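Attaching the record inline, Q. Sequence:
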Amino acid sequence: MARYVGRFAPSPTGPLHAGSLVAALASWLDARAHDGRWLVRIEDVDTPRCDAAATDTILRQLADCALLADEAPVFQSARGAPYQAALDLLVAQGRAYPCACSRKDIEQALAAAGRSHERHGELVYPGTCRGGLRGRAARAWRFRIEPGTVRWTDRRLGPQAQDVEREVGDFVLKRADGLWAYQLAVVVDDAAQGVTDVVRGEDLADNTARQVQLQRALGVATPRYFHTPLVLGDNGEKLSKQNGAKALDTSDALSALNAAARVLGLQRQSGSVGEALAGWSAQWRDFYNRPGD
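Structure, as predicted:
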């Protein structure tokens, strides 16, 4: 088996919050438990929403918690060339095609077909442009889904399955504004960095089947996945920047880390941050490195 490579990949749209630290700590612990490498990738491909100050804050917060990457961070905003190469390959394979549809077009097409249901606010694409643009101007590029159910086993959640064609539809690879979509960027970057294990929040588990289909189409390896428990806000929804999550206070890094560890089912630690991380590393090996991992 290839040497373990893990990564933490925050989007710099604001500072880390308590939920972000859960994913960061889990991915760091998993890498250390496997005697592997841990990387930090700054997912700033959505440049209008990202800023350098947030990146600086995130890196400082990680350093305060002694979660230090084994290599310099990679920035998605500087990686347009490999994303374009991947899109070109998919086009050549007939697995990507231009799309002229706006969101309103998709809503109208679904309504006309009696399919107005929205999935987590995301409209299931009805395949309008699969057969060509019909004289309309291209807005975006979409991935042509292979029919059938994608199955995988999550290290924490167990067996998972999704029919991407029915539940998502052909999804966007390059947006109408010219920016690269998350799904393509994350698959290309995981492959380029040799990532063997993806440890991230449970809210991202829904993306896995799409990424597996892309990995297969691009001929790259599929990592193992471990989706961590979520931190919930007072309203019962996932804690996030969108629902007012407070910036993580790392002036007392041990307290912040203990709160994250509690979400992961790990015991409270005292002493220095380094001693606490060593204690959690031992616990992680016992709790999460099951036979077959």
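The chain has two domains: 5-79+182-289, 87-151+162-174. The first strand starts at residue 5 and ends at 8.

More tomorrow.
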